[in-house]
Amino acid sequence: MAENGTDCDQRRIGMIKEQHNGNFTDPSLPCERKRRDREERQNIVLWRQPLITLQYFFLETLINLKEWTIKLWHRRSIVVSFLLLLAVLTAAYYIEGTHQQYVQYTEKKFLWCAYWVGLGILSSVGLGTGLHTFLLYLGPHIASVTLAAYECNSVNFPEPPYPDQIICPDEEGIEGSISLWTIISKVRLEACMWGAGTAIGELPPYFMARAARLSGAEPDDEEYQEFEEMLEHAEAAQDFASRAKLAVQNLVQKVGFFGILACASIPNPLFDLAGITCGHFLVPFWTFFGATLIGKAIIKMHIQKLFVIITFSKHIVEQMVSLIGAVPSIGPSLQKPFQEYLEAQRIKLHHRSDNGVPQGENWLSWMFEKLVIVMVCYFILSIINSMAQSYAKRVQQKMYSEEKTK
């Protein structure tokens, strides 16, 4: 018969039995205390306790800076080597010569790749909010390149200003020369860099679980504790979420490289569990990271690119606008701003300067810009709350240790 209830419930039953037998000694329940402490930490947010939250945030920031300083001091040789390399690159960057054209090209490509890798890392760790930078940055970029490619009949956008601004090239493209593969090739670099960033963002859960398993210490992470509880109560799992997590864990544990590759190659919100599983069962680093990199940066990214490119292909966009107009009552009023937005984008693609570019702001672009601002603000708030709660956990653990020593 499947067991029901949590460890806290089982421990409570056992202590009640001890109380009946007369040998009950400690009335405290550690798991109950953990639950109460977790609830207290969750209340430390800016909109409930602003002063305490800001105080804890600054204290946690100081502690993190101190820890990072100590780590860098212990790795002095690596830091010195890095600084020497940085000095050589700085000298090459500022000294005049024929090499400057290569330096400028390398700089531009490096910053472009770093931008998308950074967005990929932020997307993988969820920005603390579950925010997906593909929806806010990479997806719209691929969509704009797709629309421009069909409008210009070319992907040879002048560089500069591309990728900062897309403008049709001077030469006229051949009608019908744009294919799916042409657009995929145009956005391959940024898409692969974004995918590589998401793969890098999956490493913290892996290293956390691996270090916890090797040290035998209790990990300071609630996701890992949830993972261990899931392993203990695997047979009793009844809800869909628990069964889905268990399926991911079994696939990764039993199939290995190809199981990780399968989980990384499809949109999978439970992939963090795959990283924890691989770390817990001491899967080799390159087995985990190699499969994750191939799955996210190559296979999954091509699937996502295909979806966006097909969705924003010229004939499909025109059909979508016509379908919007067919909606009773509100259709024509919704169709008009979409048509104005598309027409404004077409006009902008054929201008080489700001002269003649429409200055009116479409409400769709205005809403998107405000959405980005709101999400970035929420990201900053979530970082402050998370660091404040991390410091609160330090305080709680210190108090608990002091109580145990008394």
UniProtKB/TrEMBL annotation:
Print the keywords alphabetically.
Membrane, Transmembrane, Transmembrane helix
Which GO terms fall under molecular function for this chain's record? phospholipid scramblase activity
Transmembrane helix keyword on record: yes
Membrane keyword on record: yes
Where do transmembrane segments lie in this chain? 77-95, 115-138, 251-267, 273-294, 306-327, 363-384
**GO-annotated biological processes:** autophagosome assembly; autophagosome membrane docking; cell junction assembly; cell-cell adhesion; lipoprotein transport; mitochondrion-endoplasmic reticulum membrane tethering
Q: Where on the tree of life does the source sit, at the highest rank?
A: Eukaryota
- What's an example GO cellular component term for this entry? nucleolus
Name the record gives this protein:
Vacuole membrane protein 1
Q: Which gene carries the instructions for this protein?
A: VMP1
